[in-house]
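tryptophan synthase (termite gut metagenome), 69 aa
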Amino acid sequence: QKQAYFKRIEDMQLKNPRVVGFGISNRATFEAACRYASGAIVGSKFISLLEEERDAEKAVKRLIEGLRE
């Protein structure tokens, strides 16, 4: 369902870069989003890691590691 939506947006051939900002929590979801967009916004996952770590630098490090795995 999401991919059909992304495909419709892609077919519009908009001039502005597109980013996906929902459901991004790991490498697989990031790569899926980037098939149809210029990038992804990883908001909720970052907030949950920040709540766990209480240290922004550690949370960012874990987020990046999770997206690379």
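The chain has one domain: 2-68. The first helix runs from residue 2 to 11. ok done for today
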